[in-house]
Design brief:
Chain A: InterPro entries: ETF-QO/FixC_UQ-bd, FAD/NAD-bd_sf, FixC-like, FixC-like_C. Chain A: This is Protein FixC. The complex is a heterodimer of chains A (435) and B (103). Chain A is of the alpha/beta class. Chain A has 15 helices and 17 strands. Chain A is globular and about 85 Å long. Chain A starts with a strand and ends with a helix. By secondary structure, chain B is α+β, with helices and mostly antiparallel strands. In chain B, strands 1-6 form a two-stranded antiparallel sheet. In chain B, strands 2-5 form a two-stranded antiparallel ribbon. In chain B, strands 3-4 form a two-stranded antiparallel sheet. Classes of the chains: A alpha/beta (435), B alpha+beta (103).
């Protein structure tokens, strides 16, 4: 192994793999370091794979990647204690030659992705934790130290795809510690069922079609959060995530929240008879645009969750991770080709390229959403409950006249929000933050 | 383990974590508590409830203790206690700790 690399990539998740793959393909001499037994063994996601981000690097990924089901139906549920009201979008147009979204099992997918990275010529070291960055006298990052014996490893640039906790960057003083209101804690269980049972329960035509359910309302017990249920081939991923600051304040055990969700009358029949084979917990960066740390400096840059690249509104993260990893790598390949060093000044092209991409355009569009949700818990409590009560009143036939029932429902909302002005203000606030 | 939600009680934490794979680094816990004089902070005490792996418990003296063998390395405790200085938190040595099968 040569002592000096063109680049060191910390982490073998979607962002680190995308960066390493892109640089490897371009002929750079890359070392990638992951702390897991194999790439994927420390990684957690819901998980939905968005084909586009991967396709831009590996156009024929569908031939070999471990994919579960492609998504033909998206359900969105507003939950109260006993009911759900929602919308479904199902379309045969999702049954296309190259489907747009897939459910995946991250540990298996990452293993596959890592194989492509190594085939692209990247040197991978696993079971190794990067402990700190090495700098020269001028403060430029020139390598990393690990928990393995043998001293530092050097490179022209270090790509930090180390995940949401961002410990290396943080302990090297490159970024501040995460704030509890900028990260969600999600817990998830993987429940196994026979493939044909999943097909029947979710009204699917074959083992390749899948359903995604996103859930808002009582699932988060008054906290800022959502629940989800994804169909894999022979399993169901079910989870719930809420802001860490809310968990700390409310002190609700996350697994109890998940158990409540699983026992909800709308969910229980979907899981009946299943066998739970894994329970995981993971943080999701949800602070949005304004929580993005400094992304570049002399000899380093940040990609993926470590850069807070998650679009919480659309539940997109792995595609932003892959895209930031790829774009960072393309910038480094360009600098290398032009014979320019990875200085803070030269790495500005990375930030510029991100601003031009959907990554920062989308995060900028929703930059007001995190604060809006944090300050308006009624969006998770009052409104979902109101919608379910309204549906009940609308559908139940009980001898009372419709006008009286409607008036009751509206009075209920007015009382819950303390006046119509508040309701109107809520609507304006949401519309503004969405723009 | 068959799902116990169908009419009976939810699984205990031990049953839940039993499904996971771990490589425990014996004698080298990656999370340690540095107890402060004057008692544990509300942040540290909150971990007894909100750690998703139930690693934190109150001992007989009413102090918070941590046993991170079942830790899923999410980082929640680190973030909640960042200002109190009561936690010493690092990732386990390479290869040790949780090993996700499905992730």
């Amino acid at each position: 192994m040569p002592e000096h690399f063109d680049a060191i990539v910390v982490g073998a998740g979607p962002s680190g793999n995308a960066a390493a793959y892109t640089m490897g393909k371009a002929g750079l001499n890359v070392l990638q370091i992951d702390r897991g037994e194999y790439p994927g063994s420390k990684n957690v996601q819901g998980a939905i794979l968005y084909a586009d981000a991967l396709e831009r690097m590996i156009p024929d990924f569908r031939e070999t990647a471990p994919l579960e089901r492609h998504v033909v139906e998206q359900r969105f549920w507003m939950l109260d204690e006993t009911s759900h009201t929602g919308t479904h979008h199902r379309s045969d147009s999702f049954n296309e030659e190259k489907p747009n979204r897939y459910t995946i099992l991250r540990a298996q997918f990452d293993k596959w992705f890592s194989k492509q990275v190594r085939d692209a010529g990247v040197t991978l070291i696993t079971e190794t934790t990067v402990t700190e960055l090495v700098r020269n006298a001028e403060g430029k990052v020139i390598g990393v130290l690990t928990d393995r014996e043998g001293g530092p490893v050097y490179a022209d640039v270090v790509v930090l795809g180390e995940g949401v906790n961002g410990l290396v960057a943080q302990r090297s003083g490159l970024r501040p510690e995460l704030r509890p209101q900028h990260v969600a804690l999600a817990v998830k269980e993987t429940h196994f069922l026979p493939e044909d049972t999943i097909r029947e329960r979710f009204n699917l035509s074959d083992e390749n079609e899948g359903v995604v359910i996103e859930v808002l309302g009582s699932v988060s017990s008054g906290m800022v959060g959502t629940g989800f249920l994804y169909t894999n081939k022979e399993s169901i991923s079910i989870g719930v995530g809420c802001l860490v600051s809310d968990f700390a304040e409310k002190q609700i055990p996350p697994y109890e929240l998940l158990d409540r969700f699983k026992s909800h009358p709308s969910v229980r029949p979907l899981l009946k008879g299943s066998e739970m084979k894994e329970y995981v917990a993971h943080l999701i960066p949800e602070g949005g645009y304004d929580a993005i740390p400094n992304l570049t400096g002399d000899g380093w840059l940040i990609v993926g969750d470590a850069g807070q690249f998650v679009n919480a509104v659309h539940r997109e993260g792995s595609n932003l991770a892959m895209t930031t990893g790829r774009i960072a790598a393309e910038c480094l390949v360009r600098l290398k080709a032009e014979g320019l060093p990875a200085t803070e000044e030269n790495l500005k092209i990375y930030r510029d390229a991100l601003e031009e991409s959907f990554v920062l355009k989308d995060l900028k569009k929703y930059r007001k959403i995190p604060k809006l949700l944090e300050r308006n818990r009624q969006l998770f409590t009052t409104y979902p409950a109101f919608i379910n009560r309204s549906m009940q009143a609308f559908l139940r036939v009980d001898g009372r006249d419709k006008k009286t029932k409607e008036a009751e429902i509206l009075r209920g909302l007015k009382r819950a929000r303390g006046g119509w002005l508040r309701v109107a203000t809520d609507m304006v606030k949401v519309a503004r933050a969405w723009r | 383990m068959t799902d116990k939600m169908n009419g009976t009680k939810p699984p205990k934490m031990e049953e839940r974590l039993y499904q996971n794979r771990y490589m425990v680094d014996e004698g080298r816990p990656h999370v340690r508590i540095e107890h402060q004089r004057g008692g544990d902070s509300p942040e540290l005490r909150a971990l007894v409830n909100i750690c998703p792996a139930g690693c934190y418990r109150l001992n007989e003296e009413g102090r918070v203790e941590v046993a991170p063998d079942g830790c899923m390395e999410c980082g929640t405790c680190r973030i909640v206690c960042q200002a109190t200085g009561e936690l010493e938190w690092s990732y386990p040595r390479g290869g040790y700790g949780i090993l996700f099968k499905f992730g």
